[in-house]
């Protein structure tokens, strides 16, 4: 009873936060984003890596994540019961607990991603590069544990990240679609007296003459059959998603082990190792290819949209390899330095330190890990 009361208080607090973020969230987020671009990168020893610029960016990112989590309706969370009711009946206690635990774990994972560069910077400044890579390994293990926890809460047979879900379904999108369905259902159950009356005269299209409608000539309009209540937004995910196969399991192992293997090779061979670079690219490309070949979801369903968004996210992450060392040092460093020099010569634009901030963050693992 006490646990249920506590859960109700948490849900009430989230409802209040949802109302506040719905009104003021966008304006606050824009202000924080402007602060990120205007904070200069200092050259002094205490901030040679742009630490405080990254602090401002992390605060902005955390606020954006919190706003996204709060604005999402509980019914939009991709967690469903073992046996879906298919209607908007009151969710069970277990479903509410699963939704809350999923939401907290998803927010914790994305919060760690927001501050992981700061943690690596601090470790690098205190004890050097090798210690920073050790800290990166510990953070990746924590992230992997959270991903496993989320994977067992969602109905899919492979991990679908919150970033992909947000791209496919912006906050409140499904809630608006559900409300539209509810409005249609309510309109269809109106009484005949609420329906617009039939016209009392017939007007000819060519002559314009009006003729009175004969009494009894028209049958009284029959009330339309009420539409069934719209299904839960998570209903059908378990049945519409791609079935589990051995190839999907192999793809998942390769994808989630890539950061750990990459870090282990960097610790042994150094950050400039081409072998570590090629191994990371090969593992990512192979895992995405195996996953794409095994997609067997129901076309046009919500499960298909979310799985496609996750595959697209993983495919786009492969491009992070171009900004990892040593590839970046060999191909893109000189063009990036030239672009930074040109932008600093242009008035107004030189106030924004986008390229400069990227250049000082690039050597760090978590600025290019994509995990």
Automatic annotation (TrEMBL):
GO terms for biological process: peroxisome organization. One of its GO terms (cellular component) is peroxisomal membrane. It comes from the Eukaryota. It is found in: Peroxisome membrane. Its main location: membrane. Keywords: Peroxisome, Peroxisome biogenesis. Belongs to the peroxin-16 family. This is Peroxisomal membrane protein PEX16.
């Amino acid at each position: 009873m006490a646990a249920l009361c506590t859960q109700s208080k948490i849900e009430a607090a989230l409802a209040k936060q949802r109302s506040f973020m719905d009104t003021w969230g966008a304006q606050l987020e824009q202000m924080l984003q402007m602060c990120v671009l205007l904070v200069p990168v200092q050259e002094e020893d205490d901030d040679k890596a742009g630490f405080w610029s990254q602090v401002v960016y992390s605060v902005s990112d955390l606020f954006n994540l919190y706003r996204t989590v709060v604005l999402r309706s509980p019914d939009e969370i991709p967690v469903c019961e073992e046996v879906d009711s298919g209607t908007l009946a009151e969710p069970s206690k277990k479903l509410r607990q699963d939704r809350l635990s999923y939401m907290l774990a998803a927010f914790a994972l994305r919060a760690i991603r927001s501050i992981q560069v700061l943690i690596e910077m601090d470790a690098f400044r205190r004890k050097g590069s090798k210690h920073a890579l050790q800290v990166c390994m510990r953070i990746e293990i924590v992230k992997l544990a959270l991903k496993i926890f989320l994977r067992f809460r969602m109905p899919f047979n492979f991990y679908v990240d919150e970033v992909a879900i947000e791209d496919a379904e912006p906050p409140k999108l499904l809630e608006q679609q559900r409300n539209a369905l509810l409005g249609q259902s309510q309109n269809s159950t109106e009484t005949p007296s609420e329906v617009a009356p039939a016209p009392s005269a017939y007007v000819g299209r060519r002559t314009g003459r009006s003729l009175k409608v004969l009494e009894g000539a028209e049958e009284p309009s029959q009330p339309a059959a009420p539409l069934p209540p719209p299904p839960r937004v998570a209903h059908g995910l378990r049945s519409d998603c791609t079935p589990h196969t051995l190839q999907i399991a192999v793809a998942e192992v390769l994808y989630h082990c890539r950061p750990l293997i990459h870090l282990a090779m960097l610790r042994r061979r150094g950050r400039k190792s081409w072998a570590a670079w090629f191994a990371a690219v090969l593992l990512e490309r192979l895992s995405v290819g195996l996953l794409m070949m095994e997609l067997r979801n129901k076309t046009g369903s919500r499960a298909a949209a979310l799985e496609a968004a996750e595959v697209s996210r993983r495919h786009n992450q492969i491009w992070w390899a171009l900004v990892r060392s040593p590839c970046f040092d060999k191909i893109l460093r000189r063009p990036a330095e030239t672009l930074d020099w040109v932008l600093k010569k242009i008035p107004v634009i030189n106030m924004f330190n986008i390229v400069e901030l990227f250049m000082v963050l690039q050597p760090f693992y978590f600025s290019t890990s994509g995990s």
